Structures are given as C-alpha cells and as structure tokens.
Amino acid sequence: MTSATLFQWVIFNRDVPDSSVKVGDRAVIIDHLPPNPSQTESGYTLEVFKAGETSDIVSVPISWVTPLPEVWGNAKQVEIS
Question: Which residues form the domain of 14?
C-alpha cells in the first residue's frame, strides 16, 4: 500500500457512505490515522474540495484513495514511494 504525506492530494477510488464524496473527487490529507481494534487498516482524515471550496471532511482507510503527485500549497511535485 502506498502511503502519502500530510497535505498531499489524493483521489477517491470509491464512494464514501453517508457523505457526498464520490469516486473521482479530490482531497488533501490532513491527518494520518493508525489502525485500531475496529479498523485494522491505517487511514487518513481528508479535506474534500469541490469547485475550489471545502465540501466535506471524512476519514477513510488508505486503500480508498490514490495519492497524487501534488502537495497543497506547493507547486513542487513529490515522489510517491
């Protein structure tokens, strides 16, 4: 599984239940979440943007998103390891 850095952009691979977030939406990572007894996969808290405005904040397993080579507020590309 590819992990990403804080403020890196991601794109959703699936719809997020009980939210307006859909496949293809873009978000920025605002926190990393460790696994816990009820969720064995690490996750991210994400700020979702639509039309340049925050539309939602969600927490999802990392497998639900694909990191993009962009960091919010930084024109420089980042490497995905």
Answer: 8-71
